[in-house]
Protein 1
Amino acid sequence: MSLVFRRAIVVGASSGIGAEIARQLDADGCAVALLGRREDELNKVAAAITSSGRGSAIVKKHDVTHTDTVPALLDELVKQLGGLDLLVYASGIMFTPGEGEYDFAQDRAQIEVNLIGGMAWTNPVCAMFEAQRSGTIVGISSIAGERGRRTFPGYSTSKAAFTTWLEGLRNKASRYGVNVVTVKPGFVDTPMTTAIERKPMVIPASKAAELILSAAKGGGSPSVFVPGQWWLVAMILRHIPSFLFRKLSI
Ligand SMILES: NC(=O)c1ccc[n+]([C@@H]2O[C@H](COP(=O)([O-])OP(=O)(O)OC[C@H]3O[C@@H](n4cnc5c(N)ncnc54)[C@H](OP(=O)(O)O)[C@@H]3O)[C@@H](O)[C@H]2O)c1
């Protein structure tokens, strides 16, 4: 099976993986709506799309923590696009506390952006896709959600919860023709990871976007590691006993 996407919303399209996904969707002939808080960055992605000569992108300044604005914005975008085949939820923030540092505000913010914002978008989109008996939802989670990590307890919690949320949606809606895709990247070279020194098996955002779209087009509601080698790492991580895992520096 190879799904064809014609109308897409990318939440978190102003940089990194989301921006690359938007560019590659445009290259495939898909009309795209770009969402995020930094309008200037969204405009740069839209300008690249326009200059490609293939199409134009809709730009909407949007903060995913303003969840009450989602239903009306979704309606507006679906009207402008003339329908919807694909939602990509790529918005995310990561806080890595230092040794001895504890910060509830940062942990809360990660849950609000990485999980609650994702629930606010995927709920109405899933209802729409279930009613139309088709559509693809791509949620960018992370391999970080496989275990509670001492380097970022709040981030790993938000990603574990988002992974579980997407699995629940898949179990609820895939029988109605909705393709729910969970994406668990390893290290991707984006603004989010600029400050991280050691990034084993890092890939460029363009490669990540290519792998993500290929998994989404395949249908069948997959849960994928990006790139696939992280599956083995995840298997190993999951089987390290807790008393040993806490001694590791990851
Ligand atoms: N890079 C990696 O190694 C890696 C690995 C695993 C998973 N991921 C996940 O991949 C996704 C994309 O991250 P990235 O690596 O591409 O980093 P990025 O370049 O920092 O992109 C993050 C995106 O999230 C958006 N965002 C953040 N807060 C938002 C808010 N309140 N409202 C709306 N949008 C918001 C940003 O847009 P604005 O700032 O314009 O709002 C931006 O478009 C994230 O979910 C991240 O957790 C990344």
Protein 2
Amino acid sequence: MKEFTGRVAVVTGGGSGIGAALSHACSQRGMRVAVVDVERDAAEKVAAEINESGGEAFSSVVDVRRLSEIERLAQEVDQNFGACHLLCNNAGVLVTRPILDLEEKDWDWSLSVNLLGPIHAVSAFLPRMLSSGEEGHIVNMASMAGLVSMPHRGLGAYTTSKFALVGYSESLRAELASKDAPIGVSVVCPGAVATRIAQSERNRPKELETGQGPTPTQADPNTAPAQGRQTSEEAALRILAGVQANDAWILTHPEMKSMVEARTSALLTAFDEAAGLVL
Ligand SMILES: NC(=O)c1ccc[n+]([C@@H]2O[C@H](COP(=O)([O-])OP(=O)(O)OC[C@H]3O[C@@H](n4cnc5c(N)ncnc54)[C@H](O)[C@@H]3O)[C@@H](O)[C@H]2O)c1
């Protein structure tokens, strides 16, 4: 997607962190923005800031776990702005508990927000985007934890959801390219960005509470080494550059390349070992 001016962006998780920065960055490039979040006040604040600064935005309270709510959002965007051009599936939550301690409710919450959320949004928005015939782009927010398992304890559920989102995004991109559809797909894999992700439990629905309470995490981006930690604004700029370049993977932390190299090298070694097997 080369042109942003006059286009329509939808940003889930737009009330906080990377989503709030993306909402502002989209507006600064002349897009009209739907700021979508489960946190009403946060979404309203970001939309109000955009409108006060001369942009055009509305907020919508949507739980991305619910397909019916996303479908209602797609209608709302149609009515307010017309066809969506840039769908940013950014909403996400971090469950930090070792796999052995995870309950069904932890898996349900993590997978339903981080994986089913983007899948629901694509189901609701992509047919509309295709039928508009206009150029568009889908951004799915994964993580470096979607490319390598991170050396922090307790990221099993998060890593599972983000690896799956990377696979989904690559498949969707290939399918759309094979149809010559004018819609690009990028998956974003950031390292630490200073946001409220470590306080994700604030948004855990009552019915999915386990009584275990939040577990302190080493994966809090706010306490990650300052050298690699980015601001949401820096991440948002990199993401929009990746959209314009139609990058398959949008990476924000070049210093983490060695982690992917180490994983890839171990995988290639496993192939070499398989080739040497006598069956
Ligand atoms: N911060 C990091 O270090 C980092 C690194 C890699 C990837 N990410 C990813 O970036 C994305 C944005 O997270 P962030 O770091 O800005 O955290 P954040 O907590 O500041 O923002 C996440 C937003 O998602 C919203 N949200 C949560 N559950 C929702 C639901 N069910 N429906 C709709 N909205 C919901 C929250 O209310 C919040 O506004 C997430 O997908 C996260 O996994 C973050």
